[in-house]
Amino acid sequence: MGNIFDWVDSRFGVRKPHSKFLERRIPENLNYSYCLGGMAFTYFLILAVTGLLLSIYYVPSEKEAYRSIVMITNEVMLGWLIRGLHKWSATLFIIFIMLHTIRVFVSKAYRPPKELNWMVGVLTFVVVMASGFTGYLLPWDQKAYWATEVGTSMIQTVPFIGDYLVYAVRGGTEVNGATLIRFYSFHILYLPITISLLLWAHFHIVKKQGISKWL
Amino acid sequence: MERRAFLKRLINFSFSILVLITGSVLVYIYPSKMKERKLHYVYLIDEDELPKRGVRKMEFKYKSEDIAMINRAYLVISDNSMNAFSPVCTHLGCFVNWDNNKMEFICPCHGGKYNQKGEVTAGPPSRPLTKLPLKVMDGKVYLGIKI
Hints:
heterodimer; A: mainly alpha; Cytochrome Bc1 Complex, Chain C; 71% helix; B: alpha+beta; Rieske Iron-sulfur Protein; 4-stranded antiparallel beta sheet; 1 helix; 11 strands
């Protein structure tokens, strides 16, 4: 195993370009609460993998969406497992982001020069919530439909432009097939790409600034 | 436990987890057993509208999982027999056409030819045209297809 790694490393370069990162010093007395962000990221990876797998069988159309979900759960081998992993990882992803935020807040890790990373983190959280909201519609059952009906009508309360915003989000005057495809597209393309970029920035800043001590 | 031994065990453990995940992913991606398609009889034409002899292209409608479908088959009628053939060429699945002058089914893709009995007379097909079951009941002709 080591030989193979050395062979790749000498040609591709993993160790040397990353030595600053791999051999950096971290403060003493860190505890497990510093793993919460990493755990949230692990859930993101699980979501990415299971999401890719679900997209093999899911059909984002008015007629087929619910049927394909039932098929994934009942007929596809291990489909129940992949769908369950995706669903539960989504919930836990948000819970662990919250716990991570609490840790950062309590340990005062948002103080200068780390304010920018706090902002990036908050932005990530917003986009993750949007991901959760768009994903909730995809099973296309009664609960999903009415949750989206209620959720999107909240946008209507925005002063002056509320009506136009709601029209844009739903892709029509009411939640219908157009909304489903819109949400699907956002759920599997726009939002995950945005989260990936934000997380890259998040980790880049951590690498640059190092981990702060618990104050 | 020694650090080196622990790390070795950890690496082995991660690899077995990786193998397990890869295995489940492969199982998941592999298509589960298809539903067996059953033979259904679809109305084709009234018996007294049938031509005396010759080959006739028939269109018929049916429903597959609540979705309306239109499909076609060839009725070949001679003096004392009536056969139905699927128009799907047995070579690569193009739809064959009946040529009334040459008296042959001709496949437009690779020039496969079949005679009136559905037997191959030229070209790449290795099997004759698929014969479909027919049923006559109460003066109506029904075609058996798998849906």
